[in-house]
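Troubleshooting: if your tokenizer reports a length mismatch, compare your output against this known-good record of 243 residues.
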Amino acid sequence: MEWTGKGIVLAVRPHGETSAIVELLTEEHGRHAGLVRGGRSRTLRPVLQPGNTVSATWRARLADHLGNYAIEADLHRAGLVMEDALALAGLNAACAIACQALPEREAHGRVYRGFEVLLDAMDDAEIWPALYVRWEAGLLKDLGYGLDFAKCAATGESEDLTHVSPRTGRAVSRAAAEPYIDKLLPLPGFLHNPEAGYGPGDIANGLALTGFFLQRRVLWPIDRDLPDARVRLIRALTDAGRI
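Known-good structure output:
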């Protein structure tokens, strides 16, 4: 069994004295783990950092084996965010969500490509928090739990959509939401209108919305919860006044 392609490093776990088990997010093979011999060496340690893109060849005797990776550096992103605590929190949260939510070895090309866009924007704090929320919403959609922001679930209207039903994941207009306002989730404008910017509270509302559905529809059914890295991201965004 063998394949070659590019992947984004999601996580690295020590294995033995010198090796590491590395999880990559790839476009064609999804979230895929493999053993890197010498992965804890001074040569490979800077390469095997979350967020970096690598060229990888995976080999195994049988398809269901862990297998081995031969890895070469391709794009060093991790070093670019190490001095930016906020960007580092965003990178760690995105990697942790991908590890928790994506099934192993199941291709999700749109999630991979969206992840690349998000990581490439990490040097602009005015842009990436909204991209992060959109990426989580896209991940939900690709897993089959897409949120429907096209029109109001109650009236069919496509204007003035302000909330989302926690039961159905469908948008609700301002007028229809009024009697049930305490039971609905706020919908930030930038999630249903690509042209819209975001204002105070929008990132927090977006994270609360995607987090609610990730937790209840994706993670709880497989006995997992939202990772601590995501909690730290929300705290970092709050402290930086970006939420």
